[in-house]
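Entry for the shared binder. Reason: the reviewer on the internal report wants the predicted structure included alongside the sequence.
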Amino acid sequence: MDSFGDRLADAILSTGTPLCMGIDPHASMIPALFGDSSTPGSPQTLRAISDFSMACLAAAKGQVAAIKPQAAFFEAQGPEGVRILADLSRAAIAEGILVIMDAKRGDIGSTSTAYAAALIGHDAPFPSDALTVNPYLGLDTLEPFLERADACGAGLFILTRTSNPGAGTLQDLDVDGRPVYQHLAEALAPLAAARRGTSGWSSLGIVAGATWPEEAKTLRSLLPDAPFLVPGFGAQGAGASQALAGLNRQPEGWQGGLINSTRGLIFPKSAAGASSHAAWRDAVDDAVRASRGALANA
C-alpha cells in the first residue's frame, strides 16, 4: 500500500478538491425522514443514524477527498453505535474513500498501543486511513501511534493549533518567546520529514484550525511537508481563504491538507425539512458543490 501522504495527495488530485466531509450524526439534527432518532441507543435511533451516515457516504463518493467520522457521536449510542462506525468506515474504504478517524486519542504506554491497534489501519476493528491524536501528554505518547501507522501505511493528524475559541489558553502560552504550539510543531518536523512519500507529502500531519490563518502560515513554514487537517470551515465561521491559509496552491490545484466541513455539508438548512431522500440528497449535493467551488475559487 502506498503511504498515507501519497494516497492523500492522490485523493485530492483525483477528486479535484481538498474538501473533507465530517460525518457527525447528531441525533437531534438528523432529518425526520431518516426516522425517529430521539431515544439514545434505541433500535429506531440506531437505524436512523446508520441510514443517515450511509447516505452521507454516498453523497461523499467522488465529491470529497476524504470523510471524517467523529467517533464520539457513534460511541454515545452504545455498542451498536460503534458497530455502525465500524460499518461506515469499512464501507468507505471499500469504495476507495479515505477515512480520517476523528477520535483524538492520547495516553501513555500500553494504553496508546491499544488505542492504535483499535483505530489505525484498514485491518483495525475500527478501520481508518489516519487518526487524530492528542500530543499534549508528551511526545513519548506518540510512539505507539507512529509505530502502528508506519506498519500499515496509515497516517496521523496531531492536534497542534485547534479551532476552538479557548485553544490559546494552553497552546499560546509563551515559552522562551514563542507559543507552545510552535514548539510542538518544531518537535514534529523531523518526524514528518522522515515519513515523506514520493509525492513530497508526509504521512504525519497536524490539525490546524481554519479560524487561525496567520498561525497556519507560521505552521506551514515550520512543517513544509506535513498535511494539515483544517476544521472550522463553513458553519464554524471560517471562510475559504482562511481555511486554505496553510495549504499550497499548485498548478493542478490545492495540496497539503484537508479542509473539513461537517454541518455545512451534512446538515445544510435546505435539507432540514426535506420530505424525501431525493430532496435531502439534492440539498447535500448543492452544499458540497458550493463548498468545492468556494475552495477552488479562493
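Summary line for the report: The CA atoms of residues 116 and 145 lie 5 Å apart.
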